[in-house]
Design goal:
Helix content is 38%, strand content 22%. It has 275 residues and is of the alpha/beta class.
């Protein structure tokens, strides 16, 4: 049986144990017991550890070598090809916080909305149901968008779909509302973060809103096997200092397997043109 175990999983397990030995003796002990009991599936080990309170990662891990040649498209296409919608840590059946914040903007149903890094989130379904007519859904993964289109059926024709890396997204359109749940935090390089802020500045109409949610400083340090950048209310305000801050608050998200992750949601408004 042991011979059938994938070597990289064994290495991952050993690295996990070494890390846990250094940082979490109890978790090390539990991980060791799991290995002894024949659980050599890294994801399963991780889920069990999360379930009992060690919750700083989520979803599929990638090796150090993979991290070095991180390619957003390759990584995310692989995630969406190998996992069902409700098997990923960020799954939410009802994106109610986003919907509440969007309704607080009081934008009319003709407002142009873009959901950036939307994946196959149900937000677009809900926005269509409420009556929004000019929705753009962008993601680096065509597989994710294909799944969302399939779910929507004919209603998919009422949406503009864009397969693009947000850092490279170019359009002549401008938007009344920019929405991002769990995408900004994957940008860890300063130049990428700067590009992201410039994109919002460039693509948001004057007086337009943006809603961004990312892992909080009290949340996970990794997601989907990737390093992430955590945010606080202060760091959000600092990053988006060119915009008017409306509100920020923390929310606990429960993954499909019951782990808890703290997100911060922030809402900003772009300043209007000076008359
Ligand atoms: C954690 S998921 C969140 C999905 C969705 N926003 C939600 O709340 O369900 C992150 C999403 O961002 C997309 N993504 C990651 N990096 C991206 C990038 N640089 N440009 C565009 N999309 C990206 C991924 O394909 C994935 O769908």
């Amino acid at each position: 049986m042991f011979s059938s175990i994938n070597a990289s999983r064994v290495i991952n397990s050993i690295l996990l144990i070494i890390g846990l030995l250094i940082f979490k003796p109890l978790a090390y002990f539990i991980a060791f017991m799991m290995l002894a009991a024949g659980i050599t599936n890294y994801c399963l080990m991780e889920k069990i550890l999360q379930r009992i309170g060690f919750q700083n990662t989520c979803s599929t891990p990638v090796s150090q070598a993979e991290m070095q040649r991180y390619d957003a498209k390759e990584h995310w296409e692989n995630i969406y090809k190998t996992k069902k919608s409700n098997e990923v840590s960020w799954y939410q059946e009802n994106p109610k916080i986003s919907l509440t914040l969007i309704s607080e903007t009081n934008l009319g149903k003709d407002a142009k909305i873009i959901d950036v890094g939307a994946g196959d989130s149900n937000l677009v379904d809900n926005l269509l149901a409420i009556g929004f007519k000019r929705i753009t859904v962008l993601d680096v993964s065509s597989t994710a968008l294909h799944q969302a289109k399939k779910r929507l059926g004919d209603r998919a024709n009422d949406v503009t779909w864009v397969v693009s890396d947000v850092r490279k997204f170019e359009t002549r359109d401008t938007y009344d509302l920019w929405h991002d749940r769990a995408v900004l935090h994957f940008l860890t390089e300063k130049k990428d973060i700067r590009t992201y802020v410039e994109k919002i500045q460039q693509l948001l109409k004057p007086n337009g809103y943006f809603i961004v949610s990312a892992f909080s400083e009290n949340g996970p340090k990794k997601c989907s096997g990737l390093d992430i950048k955590q945010y606080s209310k202060d760091s959000m305000i600092k990053l988006f200092s060119g915009f008017t801050h409306i509100k920020s608050f923390e929310v606990e998200h429960a993954t499909p397997w019951g782990a808890r992750q703290i997100f911060i949601y922030s809402m900003f408004k772009k300043r209007g043109n000076k008359k």
